[in-house]
Structures are given as C-alpha cells and as structure tokens.
User: What shape does this take?
Amino acid sequence: MMETPDGRFVFEPAALTIHVGDVVRWINVSGGMHNVAFYSNQIPAGASQVLDAAMPNRLTELTGPLLERPGQTYEVSFADVPAGMYGYYCTPHEMLGMKAQLAVVR
Assistant: This one.
C-alpha cells in the first residue's frame, strides 16, 4: 500500500497469486491512512464468513483497520477459504483507484 511520488495511491503489486493456506501481509509503505477491504460481490461464494473471521481488528465486515504509520502491517490468513478471485480496495482511496486483485489457488 502506498502513495507514489506522483501522487497515485496503489497496491503494489496490483495482482497477486497465493495458495489456500497462505498468509498475506500488507505493508503501509508511505504512511497516511490505508487499509484493506474486500468487495463482498468480488469474492467466491462461501468466502465471506471465513475471510471475515480471518481478518483481525476489523472496522466492519470484510474491512481491515486503518494503518497510519509507514511500516505498519496487516496480515490475513487465507486458510480454509475457497479458491478464486478476491477483489479488494483501500477504503479512503477507492475513488482514487486504489484497488487490487488476489487470486487464491489450491
């Protein structure tokens, strides 16, 4: 998660492939308010409850806490989630295009 020198807000990488059981760590590189929130309509059927339970310190359903400082991290376990595509975004910067995709494979 970061703000680039030209002012763009991005997840780097914007697309990532992991395996069921992996843990993903997002790092707030640039500081400022960033988080990870999953689109409920862009995750596999049956994933919502499992994923939500794996997200510590949630703000709301499928929404992680706001990270404010550079170097702060947020980890989510993808154990027992269905394989498929997971679309996510940064709540404060969604309208600025801070979105990404996570492919979970077996």
Observations:
- The radius of gyration is 13 Å.
- Residues 2-105 form a domain with the Immunoglobulin-like fold (CATH 2.60.40.420).
